[in-house]
Amino acid sequence: MAIQSLLNPIDNDRQSRAGSETVLADDDRSRGSTSPESQDDDRSRQRSYEELHQRLSRPSPSNRERREFRPTYAKEEEYFIWYHRVDLGMDWSDVRQAYNAQFPHRQRKGFQGIQCKYYRCCEIYGVPRVRDRNRGASPAEAYGVQSRLPGLWYPWMRCPPPPPGTTNHPTV
């Protein structure tokens, strides 16, 4: 298979359809020949036609089995992930372990979902992407939950609660 066909599956399907038409036309011309080579050619053409037919008659995505429902993250869970990753500087495996300990009803086997939620949360709160961040600044001071949302506090945070008169819900 050509690299171009891997990069552009639409062109690949067009070429396959054009190839199947050629196969059928060649098939009609070679019916008179019964040599072993022509029989092998006929079999390979028939196989390629069958493969093409199978590929074109696959069920649409709406007919496929859907993945199970995954509940959305609560705000506290978002802040937990962000806080542990940036403010505490934890590795992803440690963030997952802390998350599973804090939210036992929402256990995570891997950390890919937590990573995805972290990056989406950063996008929502205007935190620059990792590659666009200032390397000289302390990540916690520049991009952490406590620096971005100073009035926010939860019991699992490792800092004292905010002064009286502030809320534990951001106004962002």
Summarize the structure.
This protein has helices at residues 3-7, 9-29, 36-56, 75-87, 92-102, 112-124, 139-143, 145-148. By secondary structure, it is mostly helical.
Protein model, in words:
This protein is mainly α. The protein contains eight helices and no strands. It has helices spanning 3-7, 9-29, 36-56, 75-87, 92-102, 112-124, 139-143, 145-148. Helix 4 (75-87) runs antiparallel to helix 5. Mean pLDDT is 75; it is low at 20-28.
Feature tags:
172 residues, 0% strand, mainly alpha
Shape: elongated
Mean pLDDT: 75
Helix and strand pattern: HHHHHHHH
Classification by helices and strands: mainly alpha
Question: How much helix, percentage-wise, in residues?
Answer: 40-55%
Largest sheet: none
- What distance lies between the first and last C-alpha atoms, to the nearest angstrom? 52 Å
Output the number of helix runs.
Answer: 8
As residue ranges, the low-confidence spans are 20-28
Q: Would you report the number of β strands?
A: 0
Task: Report the radius of gyration as a whole number of Å.
Answer: 29 Å
Question: Beta-sheet strand percentage?
Answer: under 5%
Task: Set out the fold topology.
Elements: H1 3-7, H2 9-29, H3 36-56, H4 75-87, H5 92-102, H6 112-124, H7 139-143, H8 145-148
